[in-house]
Design a protein that fits this description.
226 residues; mainly alpha; 11 helices; TetR_C_Proteobacteria; Homeodomain-like_sf; Bacterial regulatory s, tetR family protein; HTH-type_TetR-like_transc_reg; transcription cis-regulatory region binding
Length: 226
């Protein structure tokens, strides 16, 4: 593992010392070990050593490695749920702007090396432990997509967006926003774009979506003497 990868896997808080609970230290250590060695090769002894706890502490908090991986996913997967802060659009221009902002935040969060590592771990274990992938999908992708669906349905009611199933429209927009990026990153065949490049990709996706589905503003009535 490179120095940059180790930095990316560091705890989210500045204090990673003794003030952190044993459970939290175990989760952080487990994630590092899973990312470095893979789920199958990770040992509870290695996790306990890095977390500076005993194996007894591990089994007091988790039944098995799978429970630890689920805890890693649940703790970090919330970063992918971005739907809570979507403001109600009052114009087509605002609709496009909010879509671009939503997509930009989504791309930045989900292309984070930590999140990509979580996806890879879930994919690697899908045959043995499909609930890991289901948990990741539920708290991440599905939560954001459902929030976007609800928001687009409101835009339709406000006559800002054309007809169609809101869920299908949400899926279409997310496909436009991602293009091939997530697959490229999961396969490791492309580097993570800069924040500026991700924002531009999001703007282009929002503009394309509005060209396809946005409703034109009604024309102002001409006066009788015109």
């Amino acid at each position: 593992m490179t120095a940059d990868q180790e930095a990316n896997l560091a705890p989210d808080t500045e204090d990673a010392g003794s003030e952190r609970s044993p459970r939290q230290r175990i989760i952080e250590a487990a994630f590092r070990i899973f990312a470095e060695k893979g789920y199958e090769s990770a040992s509870t002894l290695a996790i306990a050593t890095q977390a500076k706890v005993s194996k007894r502490d591990i089994y007091a908090n988790f039944s098995n490695k799978q429970d630890m991986l689920l805890a890693c996913i649940e703790g970090r997967g919330q970063r992918m749920n971005l739907g809570a802060a979507l403001p109600r659009a009052t114009s087509a221009a605002m609709l496009e702007k909010v879509l671009a902002s939503f997509a930009s935040r989504l791309l930045v969060e989900v292309t984070d090396p930590i999140i990509i590592t979580i996806y890879r771990l879930a994919i690697a274990e899908v045959a043995r432990a499909p609930e890991i992938a289901r948990t990741l999908d539920r708290i991440g992708r599905k939560a954001s997509q459902q929030a976007l669906t609800t928001w687009l349905a409101q835009a339709q009611q406000d006559a800002l967006l054309g007809e169609g199933e809101a869920a299908a429209l949400a899926a279409e927009f997310l496909a436009l926003a991602w293009n091939d990026l997530r697959t490229d990153l999961l396969l490791g065949v492309a580097p993570r774009p800069s924040a500026e490049a991700l924002a531009e990709q999001a703007r282009q996706a929002a503009a394309a979506f509005m060209r396809l589905h946005g409703k034109p503003a009604p024309r102002a009535r001409r006066s009788a003497g015109a």
